[in-house]
Specification:
Elements lengths: L1 H11 L7 H16 L15
């Protein structure tokens, strides 16, 4: 993710093109939305087996 951010900033020659938060969101929630799982809970509680 860091390399992608640096590449975009270098190609546009501006550090304000994308923030680190924007890149993180694109790689996590954005990807989940594209895959159709953006509205599902990320973590489900594990059953007690002990």
């Amino acid at each position: 993710m860091r390399a992608a951010l640096y590449q975009i900033r270098a190609s546009r020659q501006s550090a304000s093109v994308l923030s680190a938060f924007d890149v993180l969101r694109m790689h996590t929630l954005g990807s989940a939305e594209v895959l159709g799982v953006g509205t599902q809970r990320a973590m489900r509680p594990l059953p007690d087996i002990f």
